[in-house]
Amino acid sequence: MGIINNINKAFDHRIRLGIMAVLMVNEYAEFNTLKEMLSVTDGNLASHLKALEKEEYINIQKQFIGRKPNTRYSVTTLGRKEFKKHIDALEKLISNK
């Protein structure tokens, strides 16, 4: 086995890594919260969220609060498992064990 096994390409981009990091420590995050925390544009964030959704690593919940649309994101069980595996692989790579 090589030392880069279990590194997941879905988390390669810094924005996807940031999204997953935020969602791993919070029950959910709203679109605007992620946008502010990661300092990204709407379109950029949306495309990375869509990539994570396609892999079934995040859930999307759309609702209205009053008359305003609200979108929340959370990590799926699969996403949590795969992200932890990715972080463990990075730690292993860095420590070269």
List the keywords:
97 residues, 3 strands, 54% helix, single chain, alpha+beta
Describe the 3D structure.
- The chain has 97 residues and is an alpha+beta fold.
- The chain is 54% helix and 19% strand.
- The chain has helices at residues 14-25, 31-38, 42-54, 77-95, and strands spanning 29-30, 58-65, 68-75.
- The protein has a 3-stranded antiparallel beta sheet.
- The protein is elongated and about 55 Å long.
- The termini are close together.
- The model has no long low-confidence stretch (mean pLDDT 94).
- This is Transcriptional regulator.
- Pfam families: HTH_34.
- Residues 15-94 form the Winged helix DNA-binding domain.
Blueprint of the fold:
Blueprint: H1 14-25, E1 29-30, H2 31-38, H3 42-54, E2 58-65, E3 68-75, H4 77-95
What is the residue-averaged pLDDT? 94
The secondary-structure element order is HEHHEEH
Task: Walk across the major sheet and give the strand order.
Answer: 1-3-2
Radius of gyration: 15 Å
Number of helical runs? 4
Protein name: Transcriptional regulator
Organism: Abyssalbus ytuae
Pfam families: HTH_34
Quick structural summary:
The protein has about 100 residues and is α+β, with helices and mostly antiparallel strands.
